C-alpha cells in the first residue's frame, strides 16, 4: 500500500512550488521543511531551509565556509540538521504527514538527515517529498520501495499531479 509520495523532475519544473501549495491545503496535518532560493541582484547565491512553523536557516551559500560543496555552493550541515532534521523528527512524533524538500546532493552529505528520512519512511506517517532525478544509491532505494510512488513533474502535468496528490492525502483516492 502506498504511503509515501515523492516528486522528481528537472530543476525549475516546479517541485518545491507543488509541495508548498499542497502543504498549504493540508494545513495542520503536515509538518517538515522546504527549500527556497536566496537571490542577490537577479543571481542565485544560495538556498534557505524553512520549516512550516517559520524557522529558517541557510542550507547552502556561495559565501559560507564548509568542506561540503555542490557546484559553487557550500553546504551548511549545521542548519540542515538543527532545522531540517528536527522538523522531520517533530512531524514523526506528532503523527503528521512528513514534508521533505528535498532529498538531493546537498542534503545527502548529512548522515543525520539520511537517518531521519529512513525513520520517516519506516514510520506509520505518510511522507510527501521531492527527490533528485539523478541516480544515487540512497535515492534509488527510496524510489524502489513498494510503499512509495514517484511522480515525474513537468510544467505540462503540474495541475494533474497536484490534484492527484491532494486527493491521496485527503484520503479520497488510492494512487
User: How are the strands of the largest sheet arranged?
Assistant: 5-6-4-3-2-7-8-1-9
Major sheet: 9 strands, mixed
Q: Beta-strand level of the residues, as a percent range?
A: 25-35%
Q: Over the alpha carbons, how many angstroms does the gyration radius reach?
A: 15 Å
What share of the residues lie within helices?
Answer: 25-40%
Describe the structure.
- By secondary structure, the protein is an alpha/beta fold.
- The protein has helices at about 15-25, 75-95, 110-120, 135-145, 160-170, and strands spanning about 5-10, 30-40, 45-50, 55-60, 70, 75, 95-105, 125-130, 150.
- The protein is globular and about 45 Å long.
- A hairpin with a 2-residue loop joins β5 (about 70) and β6.
- The protein has 5 helices and 9 strands.
Amino acid at each position: 500500500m502506498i504511503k509515501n509520495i515523492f516528486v522528481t523532475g528537472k530543476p525549475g519544473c516546479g517541485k518545491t512550488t507543488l509541495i508548498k501549495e499542497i502543504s498549504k491545503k493540508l494545513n495542520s496535518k503536515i509538518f517538515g521543511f522546504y527549500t527556497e532560493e536566496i537571490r542577490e541582484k537577479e543571481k542565485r547565491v544560495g538556498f534557505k531551509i524553512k520549516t512550516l512553523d517559520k524557522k529558517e536557516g541557510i542550507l547552502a551559500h556561495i559565501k559560507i565556509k564548509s568542506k561540503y560543496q555542490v557546484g559553487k555552493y557550500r553546504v551548511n550541515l549545521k542548519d540542515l540538521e538543527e532545522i531540517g532534521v528536527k522538523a522531520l523528527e517533530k512531524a514523526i512524533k506528532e503523527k503528521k504527514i512528513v514534508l521533505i524538500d528535498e532529498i538531493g546532493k546537498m542534503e545527502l552529505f548529512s548522515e543525520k538527515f539520511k537517518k531521519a528520512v529512513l525513520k520517516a519512511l519506516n514510520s506509520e506517517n505518510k511522507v510527501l517529498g521531492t527527490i533528485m532525478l539523478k541516480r544515487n544509491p540512497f535515492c534509488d532505494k527510496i524510489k524502489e520501495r513498494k510503499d512509495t510512488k514517484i511522480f515525474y513533474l513537468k510544467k505540462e502535468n503540474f495541475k494533474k499531479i497536484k490534484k492527484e496528490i491532494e486527493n491521496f492525502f485527503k484520503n479520497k483516492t488510492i494512487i
